[in-house]
Amino acid sequence: MPYYKAFKSLLQNYLNSLKLERPKLLGDQIRDRVRELVSSGKLAPGEKIPSSRKLATAWGAHPSTIDVALAGLEKEGLLIRYHGKGTFVHEREQRLTCVGVYCTANVKASPYSHAVRETLSRELHEAGIEMDLWMDPRPVEQYGEPWKPLLKAAEQRQFQAFIGAETNLPLVKWQSKLPVPTAFLAAPTSVPNNVDADMRQFIEISLRELARQGCRSVGLIAPLFASDARIPDDFPTASDMLSHFTEITGELGLIVKNDWMRTVRGPFQHYAEAQERFGYEQFLKLWSQPEKPEGLLIFTDVVARGAITAIREKQVRVPEDLKLALHKNESIDLFCPMPATFVVSSERETARALIEQVQKQFRGESCEPISLPYRRVAHE
């Protein structure tokens, strides 16, 4: 067939110059080469791609390797498959006009989830992109199974790209396989289209600020992920964050005691009510110790809300008895009737980064995880 001979000729030219990269997989290299052929226009929109078996022969690869590589390009929107007809170069839209946004219908979801969704809506509108909101009504136990209405909409290209604005491991496993460009909030670090805040930087900014204010000892209240065999190696855990906390306190010469480290020691529900109660109870336990730290770092802002209630209840003098470094989300009010340092994350930057991730893929570009910075704000 003429198209196959022409395609094989193009492939052969690239095959001759192809040098296998380690540890980059052959499938990834094939995907990159075919993406280049499509993006450069050497494979025209509407042109049919040879079968996986024929391509495997041309590339010297297994057909399953070709299938995986082409599936990645289909997800990026460069190729499109028609059942019974084959795979074609997609006649792509010139610009991104509609993005599906996923969230849960859980009424206990944190204020942060709502803030990110609202900010995404504004940022997409300003960019001239429609937001197609998908609110999952299913119970938490079913999140590991693909949500059929969403899956069907993605397959039918009801939206051109997808953003997971609420993420957990079961959701990422199937949502990352949707046949459109995707981006996720706070997914495992190995997910290339992930967007998350830089927790290591948060810890460093907070500790250096407390040291600058004269603190010689510090404590921590934070519902970090507990170590758990079910959590993948590439997911941030309590041990990762505590290791960095120990590293920076050691560098600054700050005293830390185990009783001042109030972190999760088991399963934890990350709902607003649970986080606020956690902050309240953990501060009371910390302040009941015979020795107390001069400075305290608290994460998240909802946990800080509970801790502030406990601080006022115990009539702790701030900053005379205790200096505070508190996490805060930019668009969410945090009532703090005492001097403190806010270490702020931006929902606006988060929304823009998520949109940037899907736009890159829509243009046929690869992307890397985005780690967003915090900034320090003094609060009197």
Written description of the protein model:
This protein has a 6-stranded parallel sheet with strand order 5-4-6-7-8-14, covered by helices on one side. A 6-stranded mixed sheet has the order 10-9-11-12-13-15, sandwiched between helices. A 3-stranded antiparallel sheet has the order 1-3-2. Helix 2 crosses helix 4. The chain is α/β, with parallel strands linked by helices. It is 41% helix and 18% strand.
Keywords:
alpha/beta; elongated; 380 residues; Arc Repressor Mutant, subunit A; single chain; 41% helix; six-stranded mixed beta sheet; six-stranded parallel beta sheet; Rossmann fold
Give me the secondary-structure topology:
Blueprint: H1 2-17, H2 26-39, E1 48-49, H3 52-59, H4 63-75, E2 79-82, E3 86-89, E4 98-104, H5 111-126, E5 130-136, H6 148-155, E6 161-164, H7 169-175, E7 182-185, E8 194-197, H8 199-212, E9 218-222, H9 238-252, E10 261-263, H10 272-287, E11 295-298, H11 301-313, E12 323-329, E13 340-345, H12 347-362, E14 370-372, E15 375-379
What proportion of the residues is helical, as a percent range? 40-55%
Say which CATH homologous superfamily of the largest domain is assigned: Response regulator
As a percent range, the share of strand residues is 15-25%
The neighbouring-strand order within the major sheet is: 5-4-6-7-8-14
Quick one: biggest sheet?
A: 6 strands, parallel
Can you tell me the residue ranges where pLDDT is under 50 for at least 5 consecutive residues? 226-235
CATH topology-level name of the largest domain: Rossmann fold
Instruction: Give me the CATH architecture of the largest domain, please.
Output: 3-Layer(aba) Sandwich
Total of helices: 12
Q: Could you tell me the radius of gyration in angstroms?
A: 25 Å
Inertia-based shape: elongated
CATH classification, class level of the largest domain: Alpha Beta
Number of strands: 15
Q: What is the number of independent domains?
A: 3
Give, in order, the helices and strands.
HHEHHEEEHEHEHEEHEHEHEHEEHEE
**Alpha carbon gap, first and last residue:** 75 Å
Mean pLDDT: 84
Q: Which structural class do the helices and strands define? A: alpha/beta
